[in-house]
Amino acid sequence: MMNVWLSKVIDNGKVLEELNTEDIKTVGKDFRCIICKGSKLLCGKARCPILIRIYAQLKIKPFIEKTELEGSSPPDIFVGRIGYPYVYVGPLIPPVKGDTSILSCPEFWQGKSIEEIVNLRFQLVRGKYRTHVKNFEGRIVELTREIALSKSSVESEAHFTKKPSGVLVLDDEVQPFGPSAPLKNLFVSSIKTDQKIEKAYSDTDLKASEAVFWLYEKGVLISRIQRAFSAGLFGIEKNRKLVPTRWSITAVDSIISQKLLEQVKTFPLINEFRVYEHEALDNKWIVLMIPGYWSYEQMEAWYPKTTWNPNGKNTWIISDWEGFEGRTTYSKTGGCYYATRLSIASHLVKEKRQATVITFREIHPGYICPVGVWHTRESIREAVRKKPAIFNNLEEALKYVNSKLTIPLKNWIENASLLKTILYQKRLSEFLKKGMLCK
C-alpha cells in the first residue's frame, strides 16, 4: 500500500522501485524527501544519500539478475553477527574478473570521495551460508577460509538459492558492501596463498594475539589481518572460531595498539607540545600531543545532518579516555577509539617517544554516510605523517587548536575527561609554584 501511494506522489516511480523497505519508511516519515527528490537538498546535506545508494545499485543490477555469479573476489569475506554463535559466512564477489584487490584494501582509498568508495564496494555481492562459529566443516566454509588466506584476487563462481537482493550495507565499523543471497554452492580457483598468513595459520600453538601482532610487524596490511582473523585462521587450534567481521576489525586494532603501547610506555617523553591535523570526507581531525606519560582521550563531534545525528538541531560531542594502565571495558565511542589509538601508537613507536594524546574529530554534514572505521585509522595515520605545529606551552597549543576547530574549544572541554583533568592539574600546580596554596 505504501509503495502504491508513494508511486503516485513521486514522479520518478521507476527509481523509487529500487529503494529498499527502510528507505521507503524514511521517505514516508520525512515528507521533505518527497518534495525534494534529491534535487533541492532540503535535508541540509551536501548530497542525497538515497540517490547515492540508488545510482550504485543501478550500476550493479544488470549483473545480478541470475542465481549464478562469476567474478574475482578481491579477496574478501564477510562473517555476520546476527544470531551468534550461528552466523552467516561467505565470500564477497564482484561481477568482474581480474585484479579487484582495490575493492578490499581501504589502506589505498585515501583521497577518494564517498561516491567513489560506495561505487567500489557496492560491486561486492555477499554470499551467505549459515553455520556455527566453531564449525569449519563443509565445502563453502572451507573455501571461504581459503579465500581469506589468499594474497591476490581469487577466481570465484557462486550459485545462489535466489537472486541477490538488498541494498548497500552501511556501517560505522565495516566497509560498505552490496546485495546478498544465500549460497547453494561455491567454486574457486587461482588461489595464491599469502605465505605469512599461512605460517600463522599453520602454527596451531600460536595465540591469536601473537599471530596478529607478528603479521603486523611483518608488514601485512591490517585489512588482510582482520579478514584472516574473522575467518578463524589464528589461535590455539581448539580455540579457533569464526569471528563476526565487525568484531574482528576492532579486535585487531585493539590487539596491535596494546602491543605497541607496551613499547611506548618505556620511551622518554616528548619535550614540546605538538598539534597535527588532517581533513578528509568532510571530517576534520586534530591530534594534540602533550609532554607526559601515556594517556589518551578520543573526542568526536557529530554535526546535525550527519549519519548518527540526522535530525538533531545541536552538535553532539562524545568522548572516552584511558590512563597509563589502559582500559578494561569497551569504549563508548566504538571502533574509532581503537583505530585512532593504533595509528597514534604506531607513530610514537617509530619515533621512540611517549606522550599524552588528545584527539578531536569534527564530522561535518558532507559526511553523508559511514564508510567504515578504516577512515579514522588511515586519516589519523595521515595526520601524524605531516610536520606538526610546535609550541612551548599548553596555552599556546590549545589556542592554535581552537583556531583550527569549528566548534569552540570550551565546548570540547565541557565534554572531556582527560583534557579537563590536565587543565585542572595545571592550574593547581601553578598555584603551588606561586605559593598561593601554601602557608
Any low-confidence stretches, pLDDT <50, length ≥5?
Answer: 1-31, 435-439
* Inertia-based shape: globular
Strand percentage: 15-25%
Helix proportion range: 25-40%
* Sheet having the most strands: 6 strands, mixed
Taken in chain order, the helices and strands follow as HHHHHEEEHEHEEHHHHEEEEHEHEHHH
Secondary structural class: alpha+beta
Give the oligomer, counting copies of the same chain as homo and different chains as hetero: single chain
Distance between the termini: 80 Å
Folded structure, characterized:
- By secondary structure, this protein is an alpha+beta fold.
- The chain has 4 domains: 2-42, no CATH class; 63-193, no CATH class; 196-263, no CATH class; 273-433, no CATH class.
- It is built from 16 helices and 12 strands.
- Strands 1-5-6-4-3-2 form a 6-stranded mixed sheet, with helices on one face. A 6-stranded mixed sheet has the order 10-9-11-8-7-12, sandwiched between helices.
- A hairpin with a 6-residue loop joins strand 2 and strand 3 (86-93).
- The model is unreliable at 1-31 and 435-439 (pLDDT under 50).
List the helices and strands and how they pair.
Layout: H1 2-9, H2 13-17, H3 21-29, H4 31-36, H5 49-60, E1 68-73, E2 77-79, E3 86-93, H6 114-122, E4 125-132, H7 139-149, E5 154-160, E6 180-189, H8 195-202, H9 208-217, H10 222-230, H11 245-264, E7 273-280, E8 283-290, E9 295-302, E10 316-322, H12 335-351, E11 356-363, H13 374-385, E12 389-391, H14 394-404, H15 409-415, H16 418-433
Parallel strand pairs: 4-6, 9-11
Antiparallel strand pairs: 1-5, 2-3, 3-4, 5-6, 7-8, 7-12, 8-11, 9-10
Helix pairs in contact: 5-6, 8-9, 9-10, 9-11, 10-11, 11-12, 12-13
